[in-house]
Specification:
9 strands; alpha/beta; globular; 9-stranded mixed sheet; Rossmann fold
Length: 284
C-alpha cells in the first residue's frame, strides 16, 4: 500500500523538496516545496497552501501539478495529519487548538524566511485557521483565497458524545466506519467521496479524536473586520459538507472580500480552478 504521508512529490516542470519543520512544542510538520524549472518565474510571489482537516496531498495533486509549473509553492501539512511527528506520547485537545495551529503556521513561515510577500490558498480547516490568524494579525500576506471555510465544526450529538469518551481504538475504528458511511450518503460528488474515503482511512485515530475534541468547541469570531488583506471565498452550492450560507456569511464579515462560486468542491482540487485564481490575483 502507498504511504501517503512521506516522500518527495515529483511533478512536471518543477523541483520538489520535503522537510519536517520543527515547531515550538516538540512537533515537526511535513512541508513540501516546489520551484518551477523556468527561472524567470522565480521572481513571482510564491503560494503558501494549507489544506483541510486530515487532507491527503493525493487529493490536491491535480491542482498543485498545474500550479507548480507557474509559481513556487509551499504546501504545509497541519499537525492533526498522520505525517506530523510528535515527541510526546499522550495527546490532548489542547495540542490541537486553533491558536496552536495558527502558531505552527507562523513558525513554518519564519523557518522559510517568508515575511508577507506571498499569497495564501487554503481549504476547510486550513481556511478556518487562517481566517482566525488574519483577524488576530498573527499572519500577513498579499492575499488569501479560502475554499469552503468552516464557520464552526458541527457534528451530530451522538458523535460528539463518542468523541469525548475515553474509548479504545476498536471503538474509534467503528466510529470511523460509521462516519464514512454517513459522508458517502450525503456527498453526491464522486471525486469528493473518494477523497474523504481515502483521507479517513489514513488518519492516526488517537490524533483524529484529540483534534476533533478541540475543533467541536470552536467557532469563528463574529467580528472579522480586522482582516486587512484582499480575500476571496470559493464555495459550491453542490457541496453538502460545507455550507454555502457559512461561506456567504464569512464573505460579508471580511472587509472587501469577494464570493467566488465554483461548480463543485472537486473543481477546487483541479487545475481548472486556476482560471478563477488568476482572475482574482490579477484584480489585486
Amino acid at each position: 500500500m502507498p504511504d501517503y504521508w512521506k516522500g518527495v512529490e515529483e511533478l512536471p516542470h518543477s523541483e520538489c523538496s520535503e522537510e519536517w519543520v520543527p515547531v515550538s512544542d516538540s512537533v515537526s510538520l511535513r512541508v513540501l516545496s516546489w520551484t518551477p524549472n523556468d527561472e524567470s518565474l522565480h521572481q513571482l510571489e510564491p503560494i503558501v497552501m494549507i489544506p483541510g482537516w486530515g487532507s491527503l496531498f493525493e487529493g490536491w495533486k491535480p491542482l498543485v501539478e498545474g500550479w507548480v509549473a507557474r509559481r513556487r509553492l509551499l504546501y504545509i501539512e497541519t499537525r492533526e495529519k498522520t505525517s506530523a511527528r510528535f515527541q510526546k506520547k499522550r495527546l490532548s485537545a489542547k495540542d490541537f487548538s486553533i491558536e496552536r495551529f495558527s502558531k505552527d503556521i507562523v513558525e513554518v513561515l519564519a523557518h522559510y524566511n517568508l515575511k508577507n510577500e506571498f499569497h495564501l490558498f487554503s481549504s476547510s480547516l486550513g481556511s478556518t485557521v487562517l481566517i482566525d490568524s488574519l483577524q488576530r494579525h498573527e499572519v500577513d500576506a498579499l492575499s488569501s483565497l479560502f475554499v469552503a471555510p468552516n464557520e464552526h465544526f458541527k457534528l451530530p450529538l451522538w458523535s460528539r458524545i463518542i468523541i469525548k469518551l475515553p474509548l479504545p481504538i476498536v471503538v474509534l475504528k467503528l466510529m470511523r466506519s460509521i462516519t464514512l458511511r454517513a459522508i458517502e450518503r450525503k456527498v453526491k460528488e464522486e471525486g469528493q467521496r473518494i477523497r474523504y474515503r481515502r483521507a479517513l482511512m489514513e488518519q492516526e485515530l488517537v490524533r483524529w479524536r484529540a483534534s476533533a475534541r478541540s475543533l467541536i468547541a470552536y467557532a469563528l469570531p463574529k467580528d472579522l473586520s480586522k482582516i486587512a488583506i484582499p480575500c476571496g471565498i470559493l464555495a459550491a452550492q453542490s457541496d453538502k459538507l460545507h455550507a454555502m450560507d457559512a461561506a456567504k456569511s464569512i464573505t460579508e464579515r471580511i472587509p472587501g472580500a469577494v464570493m467566488i462560486e465554483i461548480p463543485s468542491n472537486q473543481y477546487a482540487h483541479e487545475a481548472d480552478v486556476l482560471v478563477e485564481v488568476e482572475v482574482f490575483h490579477a484584480s489585486l
